[in-house]
Each structure stands twice: as structure tokens, then as C-alpha cells.
Amino acid sequence: MIRHLIVAFSVTASLMVPFQATAAPLGELSRGVGFANPALYLQQKGPTLAPFAQIRFCVQNPSDCAIGSGTAMVTLTAEKKAELQRVNRTINRKIIPVNDQSGPMGDVWQADVAAGDCEDFALTKRRHLISLGWPATALRIAVARTREGEGHAVLVAKTSEGDLVLDNRTSRIRPFRQAGLSWIKIQSGENPRLWFAL
């Protein structure tokens, strides 16, 4: 069973990730963080499988999954904080929450939809922040479990004040430790097709 999982990971990684991207984790860990307190940031472990619905999303939306460049952390000025709050609040009001996992395609990841579930909110927020000039490398989708044990996805913004969570369940932007979530995995900032265990 473990051998099959390793083979599946290898095949998925080789199909979805250009060879030079294997160096991404080292750069991501060191670039842009400087002397920031590591307790303020989610700690990545080893590589893990991307959610299958995210792989489909990347095939259909390659620009959302392009290898990024630029700073891996945003200095959180008053203006940037206001942008985060505005985007989180606006998208939370704009999208009608609907669970799509029971549909014929199973879980479908989409951005800029009229109705969708948690990852659709997160993808839309990421796209909108990028359009405002935020670096894609600082905006990552993370998968977690709520206190009730339900699977959940959120957008995590890496800032000078730590990893901040944009969640469709609240209009408040929270540090990751105060989000009420048990963290499972997160996208690489540099290559959204790569995921890491948390």
C-alpha cells in the first residue's frame, strides 16, 4: 500500500511539476522571512499529494498555478491590511455558500463563481489579491479540519505579522494559531502545484 502511494506521488509530481521546481522548498523557507519569528508561521514538513480537485483546477486554470517569483512575504502596512480585510469581507458576501462535493463531478475547485464552497472562496480571494498587486508567492491555499472535524480550505497570506487566515466562515482576518483549525497541508508559494504537509 505504501509503495503504491509513493509511486502515485512520483507519477503525479512528474506530470504536474517542471523538473527545476524541485528546488522550490529551500528558497521558500529562506526567501523573504529574514529574522521573523518562526512561531508566527505555519511550519512545512515534507512534500505531500496535492488535492485531486486542485490538480484539475490547475489543468483548467494554468495561470492560477504558474510558478511565482518575487517576495514570499508581504510587509503588512495599514493599506495592505485594509486590502486583506476588504477582499475577505467582499468575497465572503459575494459568493453564496454551497457544498459541491455531492455533485456528479465530486469536489470541484473554481474561482470567481456566484456560488461555491470553501476552496472556491479561497481561490477567488487569491485571484483578487494578485490583481491588486499582491505577490502570488505570499498567497497559499491550505487544507485543514474544523473543530467539528469537517474538511476545510482557506487562503493563507504570509505577512510580516505572520501567516494570516482569510476564511469564508468569518470576516475577521486571524493569525493561523487563532483560526480554530487543525492544519493538514499547504501549497508551495513558489509553485502552487506543489503541496507540503503541516
3D architecture notes:
The chain is α+β, with helices and mostly antiparallel strands and 198 residues long. The protein has one domain (2-197): C8orf32 fold. 31% of the residues lie in helices and 20% in strands. It is built from five helices and nine strands; from the N terminus they run ααβααββαββββββ. The model is unreliable at 1-34 (pLDDT under 50).
Keywords:
198 residues; alpha+beta; C8orf32 fold; seven-stranded antiparallel sheet; two-stranded parallel ribbon
Strand order across the largest sheet: 1-9-8-4-5-6-7
Task: Kindly identify the CATH topology.
Answer: C8orf32 fold
Q: Helix content range of the residues, please?
A: 25-40%
What is the CATH C-level name? Alpha Beta
Count the helices. How many?
Answer: 5
Shape: globular
How many structurally independent domains? 1
Question: How many β-strand stretches?
Answer: 9
Sheet-strand content, in percent, reads 15-25%
* Oligomeric grouping of the chains: single chain
Mean of residue pLDDT values: 84
Structural class: alpha+beta
Radius of gyration, rounded?
16 Å
Q: Runs with pLDDT <50, length 5+?
A: 1-34
- By CATH, the architecture is named Roll
One letter per element, helices H and strands E, the order comes to HHEHHEEHEEEEEE
The rounded distance between the terminal residues' Cα atoms is 22 Å
Largest sheet: 7 strands, antiparallel
